[in-house]
């Protein structure tokens, strides 16, 4: 086999002959008397190897042929095979280029997916107990938002008695109670100005000429009057059972007043407002004397319940399913004292199911329950959590916020729904100069009057699309299904104090004592990412870490060694130029 050692021995023999003759230059040229070089063919042929070796020693470069014969990468050995002609080598080079390009494109998309979509949502590997999560919040809204007895009593009000106290005329208030798109709070015109008291509860603000009404109303005054027009909690929630145990005073401990698009509502199992709200809004400042303001929550969305959490701390939780582990309440509509015109004759309740960490809104699952019925709502929870491996990633890339990453003005707890509500409030205030009565607002912020209804409806719809509200990294969703049955006559007759009552018996419970959660996890760990890249390169190129070492060796160490060796050999090969004498 022809080796480099044989080549060196042959070179040394030729050099020995060359120096013995000392008649020719290393390139086989002879100089005549006219100082011209004359070529001697035999000597030129003999010294051609000297020329080749000398050239190689002068320029140590990356030895492509040697690399092709030694590398473990697929396809390169064909470039140095003797049975491959030039056309075959060119064809093979094109094939390799195409494969390398496809491999590079695949790796590029893999890197792009890893950097832009680092998280995916997958099912948990195991089931979880519902004891680990809170019972959902249940918000009850009666369609009877305006009591006829109070409504009619406004005809006897002396306006001047209230103008000094509130700094505004009572007729402004009476004109205010408008349909908020929602349910049907009346627009009342003061009889002392219009000589008529009538209620208007239109769904579409375009159908009414609102220009004759006021633009802005006093927020504190509006809240107080709405409370006076509506039934208090104790008149709506007549009785309450938690886990088959009757609560003595549920409205004082378990229910909290909330304003929603449906009017004044009562929310069960919502986080205490001192833990849910920052306390800068007018609502929490105005009603901070309520007993539930003394309670603290032992639960947070990201961390769950604390180790020392008591079973009677809000939000409540249960370990079982079915009716035995339910929240059951008897609700009274008071149809005998209902403003039929304002309620459009609907004797119903609006039941909103939502996370205890969220303020109730129309975006939550809402069920309609008629009076004189028994209604059961079974709930299936969906819990989305986020792996801690995603904490270092930017929130815009992982598409969620942890609690310490995004701070809201009104809320202590970040959720997407809370963020949207706050965004709508500030956006509506910016565009209309006021907010609807059911939006959280800063103290002394004007409430939109009937004349501004069209403005805030448009602003609210537009702001929903412009709000940059990412989901929370821990979110709770609830899927509901309901069943209804008519109350029997015997049950109605048992209510001797009010035979004409219009009651609803509502029961809410979990479908199952276990659930399968969802988890937001890394699309690839670092090891999985390297495995995917290595798999593509191994499949297309036969690439491995050994191949990488080979490339580094041939690009760095081998040229350096060749360069050093060439310097040593060039010192030995110093040809002497001798001219032939005549």
Automatic annotation (TrEMBL):
GO cellular component: plasma membrane
Membrane topology, record value: Multi-pass membrane protein
Stretches that traverse the bilayer: 90-111, 529-555
GO molecular function: ligand-gated sodium channel activity
Record Pfam families: ASC
Keywords in alphabetical order: Ion channel, Ion transport, Membrane, Sodium, Sodium channel, Sodium transport, Transmembrane, Transmembrane helix, Transport
Subcellular location field: Membrane
InterPro entries associated with the record: ENaC (IPR001873)
Record family assignment: Belongs to the amiloride-sensitive sodium channel (TC 1.A.6) family.
Protein name: Uncharacterized protein
């Amino acid at each position: 086999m022809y080796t480099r050692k044989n080549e060196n021995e042959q070179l040394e023999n030729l050099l020995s002959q060359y120096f013995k003759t000392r008649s020719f230059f290393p390139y086989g040229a002879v100089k005549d008397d006219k100082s011209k070089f004359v070529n001697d063919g035999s000597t030129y042929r003999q010294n051609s190897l000297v020329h080749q070796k000398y050239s190689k020693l002068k320029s140590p470069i990356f030895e492509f042929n040697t690399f092709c014969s030694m590398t473990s990468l697929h396809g390169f050995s064909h470039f140095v095979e003797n049975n491959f002609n030039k056309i075959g080598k060119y064809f093979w080079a094109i094939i390799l280029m195409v494969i390398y390009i496809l491999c590079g494109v695949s790796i590029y998309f893999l890197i792009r997916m890893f950097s832009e979509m680092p998280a995916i949502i997958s099912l948990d590997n195991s089931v979880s107990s519902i004891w680990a999560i809170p019972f959902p919040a249940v918000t009850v809204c009666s369609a009877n938002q305006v009591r006829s007895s109070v409504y009619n009593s406004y005809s006897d009000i002396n306006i001047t008695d209230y103008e000094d106290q509130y700094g505004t005329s009572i007729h402004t208030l009476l004109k205010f109670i408008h349909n908020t798109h929602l349910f049907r709070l009346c627009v009342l015109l003061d009889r002392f100005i219009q000589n008529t008291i009538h209620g208007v509860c239109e769904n579409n603000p375009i159908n009414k000429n609102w220009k004759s009404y006021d633009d802005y109303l006093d927020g504190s005054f509006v809240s107080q009057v709405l409370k006076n027009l509506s039934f208090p909690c104790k008149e709506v929630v007549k009785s309450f059972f938690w886990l088959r145990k009757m609560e003595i005073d549920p409205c004082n401990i378990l229910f909290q007043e909330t304003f929603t698009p449906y009017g004044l509502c009562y929310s069960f199992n919502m986080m205490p407002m001192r833990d849910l709200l920052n306390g800068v809004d007018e609502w929490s400042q105005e009603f901070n004397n309520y007993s539930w303001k003394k309670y603290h929550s032992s639960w947070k969305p990201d961390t769950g319940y604390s180790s020392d959490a008591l079973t009677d701390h809000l939000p409540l939780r249960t370990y079982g399913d079915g009716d035995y582990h339910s929240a059951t309440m008897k609700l009274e509509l008071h149809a005998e004292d209902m403003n039929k015109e304002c309620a459009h004759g609907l004797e119903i309740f609006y039941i909103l199911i939502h996370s205890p960490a969220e303020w109730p809104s129309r975006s939550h699952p809402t069920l309609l329950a008629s009076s004189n019925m028994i209604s059961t709502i079974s709930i299936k929870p969906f819990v989305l959590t986020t792996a801690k491996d995603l904490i270092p990633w930017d929130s815009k890339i992982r598409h969620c916020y942890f609690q310490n990453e995004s701070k809201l003005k009104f809320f202590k707890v970040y959720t997407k729904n809370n963020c949207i509500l706050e965004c709508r409030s500030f956006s509506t205030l910016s565009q209309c100069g006021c907010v609807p009565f059911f939006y959280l607002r800063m103290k002394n912020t004007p409430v939109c009057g009937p004349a501004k209804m069209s403005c805030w409806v448009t602003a609210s719809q537009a702001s929903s699309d412009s709000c940059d509200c990412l989901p929370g990294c821990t979110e709770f969703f609830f899927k509901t299904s309901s069943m209804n049955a008519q109350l029997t006559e015997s049950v109605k007759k048992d209510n001797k104090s009010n035979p004409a009552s219009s009651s609803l018996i509502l029961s809410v419970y979990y479908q199952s004592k276990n659930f399968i959660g969802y988890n937001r996890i890394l699309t690839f760990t670092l090891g999985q990412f390297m495995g995917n890249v290595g798999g593509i390169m191994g499949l297309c190129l036969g690439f491995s870490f050994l191949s990488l070492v080979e490339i580094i060796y041939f690009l760095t160490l081998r040229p350096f060694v060749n360069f050093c060796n060439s310097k040593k050999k060039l010192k030995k090969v110093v040809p002497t130029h001798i001219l032939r004498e005549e």
